[in-house]
Specification:
4-stranded antiparallel β-sheet, binds L-homoserine, 31% helix, 11 strands, Alpha-Beta Plaits, 7-stranded mixed β-sheet, alpha+beta, Ribosomal Protein S5, domain 2, binds adenosine-5'-triphosphate, 2 domains, globular
């Protein structure tokens, strides 16, 4: 057992992705979080050989913690951290690292739990490897793992964010197209790590973003059904091709929405229409009982205070942006879900402007 440890904390916010018509583009960081406490032996070295291999010990508390694999070679956080380390010629965690995760983001509900875990993993690798990577490079690593930028960008930088992926050169495209299973190898646990070939480095500058303004009186009512919907499944129902009419419908609304949510006081009529979508919600309705009725029946007229309503991320959570009447809005959504046999929890959330951050703790 090492004589002393250095203690750190890593904080990553939840996110809602898509934001109305902004499929794979617009995300908002919200006031739920994944928090890691990381203890690193003061004496540890990053110049390890295979003989020095020692797996970190991971523990969890909070939401869905019973469902997380604790093997560092299966857990998403540590697999991502290992990927970052191995891209910097550091083959493993230094011996004796302890990680405790306190999870406040429910899994598979459309509130960016996997995006938060990916960002936490990138920050963990950066911390343990003593790498001090700039934010843009941290984002490159995150985008090698989660290929749509809306959750991870908002989780990393905070606020209401729009992002796009660069057009890559053919060789960079080949590197970034390597299957995730190869980017994040699952090593056998009992035999120790297989050092194998170096993983593909992320091309530089994969993702670009801009932070939009946000009217501070706007809050987010998140109504979370008590069932998980895996993002992969919810992406599987989307078509490959869209009509020009539907694309223009979304582009027109997104252009208006990004500025409308920054104006104070917010204009409910403008925002309500600008939060409509024809790119993902219509196709995901079959996966979320009650979604068509919820989107059709709550309006700024029926529920004063409501600004707009949409699916949060890949669902099944419903996101209602509002300036008041939060209980009334949540109660109506809960009622409609109830009529479809779906139990829910709900939370009133604020925007998180800070994004992800790491601190050294004194104890
Ligand atoms: N803190 C965590 N630690 C380890 N694994 C996690 C953590 N958070 C999420 N995961 C993994 O990610 C999965 C959920 O990812 P998924 O993309 O399906 O949903 P989501 O990220 O919650 O929703 P969305 O992407 O629509 O916002 C979980 O089932 C779990 O395997
Ligand atoms: N833009 C993504 C967010 C979910 O992670 C989707 O809707 O599939």
């Amino acid at each position: 057992m090492p004589a002393s440890y250095k203690h750190y904390a890593i904080h990553v916010p939840a996110t809602t992705a898509n934001v109305g018509p902004g499929f794979d583009v617009a995300g908002i960081a919200l006031s739920l979080s994944l928090d890691l406490k990381v203890c690193i032996p003061s004496t540890s070295s990053t110049t390890l050989t295979e003989q020095d291999y020692a797996a970190p010990v991971i523990t969890y508390s909070g939401l869905d913690s019973a469902n997380v694999p604790l093997s560092p070679y299966k857990n998403l956080l540590t697999r991502v951290a290992l990927y970052v380390l191995r891209c910097h010629e550091i083959p493993s965690f230094p011996p004796g690292v302890l990680i405790h995760a306190t999870n406040g983001i429910p899994f598979g509900r459309g509130l960016g739990s996997s995006g938060a875990a990916v960002i936490a993993g990138v920050l963990l690798g950066d911390l343990v490897g003593n790498l001090s990577l700039p934010r843009a490079r941290l984002l490159d690593f995150a985008l090698m793992v989660e290929r749509h930028p809306d959750n991870v960008t908002a989780a990393l930088v905070g606020g209401f964010v729009g992002s796009y992926l660069s057009s890559l050169s053919p060789s960079d495209l080949a590197a970034s197209s390597i299957p995730l299973a190869e980017v994040l190898p699952e090593y056998p646990t009992d035999a120790g790590p297989e050092w194998g070939a170096d993983p593909p480095r992320p091309p530089k500058g994969i993702g670009h973003y801009v932070q939009f303004g946000w009217a501070t009186e706007i809050r987010a009512v998140a109504v979370m059904p008590r069932f998980e919907l895996a993002t992969a499944k919810a992406r599987g129902v989307l078509p490959e091709m869209y009509s020009r009419k539907d694309l223009v419908f979304n582009l027109q609304r997104l252009a208006v929405l990004t500025t409308a949510l920054a104006r104070s006081p917010p204009d409910p009529e403008l925002i309500y229409e600008a939060m409509k979508d024809r790119v993902h919600q219509p196709y995901r309705m079959a996966l979320i009982p009650g979604l068509p009725e919820i989107l059709a029946s709550l309006t700024p007229q029926s529920h004063p205070g409501l600004l707009g309503i949409c699916l949060s991320g890949a669902g099944p959570t419903i996101l209602a942006l509002a300036t008041g009447n939060f209980d009334g809005i949540a109660a109506e959504i809960k009622k409609i879900f109830g009529e479809h046999g779906v139990d829910v929890d709900w939370e009133l959330l604020s925007i998180d402007e800070r994004g992800a951050w790491t601190e050294e703790l004194s104890e």
